Amino acid sequence: MNDADLPTWSHDLAQLFNASWAVLLPQSVSSRVDARLATLATLGDDGAPQARGVVLRAADPARCTVDVFTDAATQKCDEIMADPRAALTLWREDVLLQIRLRGTIDIIEGALAQEAWAGLSDRALPDYGVSPKPGTPITDADAYTRSADAARFAILRLTVETMDVVSLNRPTHTRAFYTRHDDWRGAWRAP
């Protein structure tokens, strides 16, 4: 592959920014592409980073937000309440694109989360109401119950402040860094 074969967005800051949001946008509940799975990092109560896999459920480029769903009783919610700063990283193999997002998370619960709750499949509902609460030590692998509990459903909404995008397309890799305070103009960085 030569430079003429590269996606046009890999060498244009505005196009790369838009392509990155396009990669995030299809991450709806019904989407099955690999980038639907991401790694969310928060700060633990001891100040150490905590990372876990999450499923992207929505993205809104106009508001610069991405959503994941969780059981409100998880440790990550406690961590976010103590310090809302977080990072989310995802990789799209099909377009050779890594996107790293940093920002702050708002926890949306109750009436504001009910529309999303109503859109979940019957199979998914019991994931929000595990007893004992997620992370609690148990005596064996099956020593817990699952029961749908709308009061335990939460949306974690990351408001993006920075976006670090790396395109690993050959023969040249490209990397750009975007910030909200710079109106997302972006700047090239060495990959």
Description:
GO terms for molecular function: FMN binding; pyridoxamine phosphate oxidase activity. This protein is mostly beta strands and 191 residues long. It has one domain (3-121, 152-189): Electron Transport, Fmn-binding Protein, Chain A (Pnp Oxidase, Chain A), CATH 2.30.110.10. Helix content is 13%, strand content 37%. It contains three helices and eight strands; from the N terminus they run αβββαββαβββ. The protein has helices at 13-24, 75-82, 114-118; strands at 37-43, 49-60, 65-71, 85-92, 97-108, 153-167, 174-179, 187-189. The longest helix is centred in the first third of the chain and has 12 residues, at 13-24. Residues 27-31 have low confidence and may be disordered.
Q: Could you tell me the mean pLDDT?
A: 91
> SSE order in H/E notation?
HEEEHEEHEEE
Number of domains: 1
Strand content: 35-45%
C-alpha Rg, in Å? 18 Å
Alpha-beta classification: mainly beta
Q: Characterize the main sheet.
A: 6 strands, antiparallel, barrel
Cofactor: FMN
EC number: 1.4.3.5
Protein name: Pyridoxamine 5'-phosphate oxidase
Organism: Celeribacter marinus
Short description:
GO terms for molecular function: FMN binding; pyridoxamine phosphate oxidase activity. The chain is mainly beta and 191 residues long. Helices cover 13% and strands 37% of the residues.
